[in-house]
Amino acid sequence: MTRPVRALEARYYTDPDLFRKETDNLSAQTWQFGCHASELPGPGTYVTFEIAGESLFAIRGHDGAIRTFHNVCQHRAHQLVSGTGTARLLVCPYHAWVYELTGELRGGPNINSVPGFDKSSICLTKVRCEEFLGFVFVNLDPGAAPMDEWFPAARAELSEWVPNWGELKPLEWVRIEEECNWKVSVENYSECYHCQINHPTFASGVVKPETYDIQPQGKCLRHTTECQDLEQMTYDIRSGFEHFDEYSSWFLWPMFSFQVYPGNVLNTYHWRPRDAGHVTVWRGWYSTDGCEDPKIRQLAIQDRETTVAEDIRLVESVQRGLASRGYRPGPLVIDPCGGVKSEHPIMHLQQWMREAIDGN
What we know:
Structural class: alpha+beta
Radius of gyration: 22 Å
Strand content: 25-35%
Distance between the termini: 18 Å
Strand order of the largest sheet: 1-10-9-4-3-2-5
CATH architecture of the largest domain: Alpha-Beta Complex
CATH topology of the largest domain: Naphthalene 1,2-dioxygenase Alpha Subunit, Chain A, domain 1
CATH superfamily of the largest domain: Naphthalene 1,2-dioxygenase Alpha Subunit, Chain A, domain 1
Helix content: 10-25%
Shape: globular
CATH class of the largest domain: Alpha Beta
Number of strands: 17
Number of domains: 2
Number of helices: 9
């Protein structure tokens, strides 16, 4: 670089019209978290969720495969399912058209009376989905590259840090409401420039901030750091796995992150934008078979009472500042050597944001 890189203009975080454009140009063309595969334990189990303003549902077929569909009947557009449940067949509540778990139309009242009616031509609209270490992701863009191309090495690295991922199920989902644009929250997550000042518990009890660094791997931001004196940890980190004495994080652009705490404790973030100034952040914590685990419960409580509470204060203040007439985007602090006091990950994030929203 030959000159400073300036932060995004405030309109990227405050403009409702730009937020609607994001839905089409970003949310609908990227890999988004849908549900955990353990929520679909057997044939016919389904989970509904919303991505980019679209109601979708994931369902496990009789062949064991997970498929995702738009939640709309192909007859007169009634939604097929709501919440979670189990169905031997998918029956529309409006006119009782019946679909197989694979999406094909099986039948409907009096359809045989219609000349030339070809039920084989009717199928629920499929959505691309991938299972990534037990997490179901969807992409509304049928031509999108596979997740392993978007996030090279992430699957293999996470398998090393969480070798028991196949046994893990959600223990707890923590819903966090933030009065800010989702990008403000994601940017805050994606730098530790602010950690020593604002996160004393995390910076003094978990990581060594001076060793913290974040580097891109495709559209993944890979967080690495050394840990503090693990003898001072408030729980037993000896898991029997490699990397038990490390902390690492993988942020998958644009709205999901895996974190692994010492002791190979898996936890996640996923962001659900509500409008230009509000986002719901879900914190997930996982245990073997979803069984009660006092260690993980205590970690979740500590996280909520320290880092989460501290970050809410920060991001909501930033959002208020972005609405100020007095704000002029300043230069990012980008150290060519990287490190904790460098905002190079924000530079990458903001470039991805420009590309997704503006096409350049």
